[in-house]
Design goal:
With 198 residues, this protein is of the alpha+beta class. It is 21% helix and 14% strand.
């Protein structure tokens, strides 16, 4: 059976925390709760010191120490390796958080927003079923399951549908000989940045 893994090229990570924010937005996490974060580390000794950024989240361990310590069986592992929490069975005891070596478990007593009152997006994304229970990275299992249901192959060469660019909308349809020259997108370094129209 397929066992999921997430590959992150740490040589390219600049510590921007965009992955942290995207995860928080996708899962409607309350203020102060981040299922993934980017650790800012200094390595080496003076004068040869450098900074590295290390994205951290649940590692979905092959033998997760958080699963056997759960007294209710709420902490579970699927056949494909994804470790998750059944919220209806969790009592929020925190044993799994103590067993996790990556500090990837979080207990949300009550959802706190960033302001005195919830913003419109915070209210829309509120997940009350996650209050008083342990939460963690789900490896976006709903997306994984949806892709498999659509017949997508794990690790397959899925490509997003092409997005029209300003040049192709303004230009007439290219001839077949010109198609090969514009079929590849320019590299990010050589292409001008698109600016949103207001």
């Amino acid at each position: 059976m397929t066992r999921w893994g997430m590959v992150i090229d740490t040589r390219r990570c600049v510590g921007c925390q965009t992955c942290t924010i995207a995860c928080m937005q996708e899962h409607g996490l309350p203020a102060g709760t981040a299922w993934r974060f980017v650790a800012d580390c200094e390595v080496g000794e003076y004068p040869d010191v450098r900074r590295i950024f290390l994205p951290m989240q649940c590692m979905h361990c092959a033998a997760p120490p958080c699963v056997p310590v759960c007294p209710t069986g709420a902490s579970r592992q699927r056949g494909d390796g994804i470790v998750w929490v059944e919220y209806d069975a969790c009592v929020g005891c925190g044993y799994c958080a103590m067993a996790c070596p990556y500090h990837a478990r979080h207990l949300v007593h009550e959802a706190k927003g960033y302001f005195d009152a919830p913003t419109q997006s915070e209210a829309a994304e509120a997940r009350p079923e996650r209050h008083g229970v342990m939460t963690k990275c789900t490896f976006c299992k709903e997306r994984v399951d949806e892709g498999l249901a659509q017949g997508l192959t794990p690790g397959g060469a899925w490509m997003p549908p092409p997005r029209p660019c300003a040049r192709s909308r303004a230009s007439p349809t290219p001839s077949s000989s010109a198609t090969s020259t514009i079929s590849r997108a320019p590299s990010p370094a050589s292409s001008p940045r698109a600016r949103p129209s207001h």
